[in-house]
Design a protein that fits this description.
0% helix; mainly beta; single chain
């Protein structure tokens, strides 16, 4: 639930938003090992129902890691993501910037979406033993 009211001089209401929203989500993921366990794939799927838009959003995910050597592992992931709440900045010369939140409704404020790509490498330290 989001409640936001902006008044001028505490008398004149310029903006009043009272938004309610509910989303339900389910997630499923699997693990697949290939090439003598050197490659690990993790496909996943998130389904999100957002009642404000009455839509079901499908968010596929995939991550992978590959052991290049005993010390070096390459990692990567990709996924679709949705954002249902938006931060809005109201600029006011006399009072400075004021931030508030609104719920996306696909009428005047669309549901945000993005595809994330992530890549990296991990290097394990060598263990140094002294006797």
């Amino acid at each position: 639930m989001i409640d936001y009211t902006y008044s001028s001089n505490d008398t004149l209401t310029l903006l009043s938003k009272h938004d309610k929203g509910l989303f339900s989500a389910a997630y499923i993921q699997d693990q697949i090992r290939l090439f003598n366990n050197r490659l690990l794939l993790k496909p996943g799927l998130r389904l999100t129902y957002y009642d404000v838009t009455s839509q079901l959003y499908t968010e596929p995910r995939l991550s992978a890691s590959y052991h290049l050597t005993e010390r070096i592992k390459l990692k990567g992931a990709v996924g679709q993501y949705y954002q249902f709440a938006k931060q809005v900045t109201r600029e006011d010369i006399s009072q400075g910037n004021r931030n508030f939140w609104l719920l996306a409704n696909n009428t005047y404020l669309p549901v945000g979406s993005s595809v994330h790509f992530i890549a990296g490498a991990v290097m394990k330290r060598l263990a140094i033993c002294s006797t």
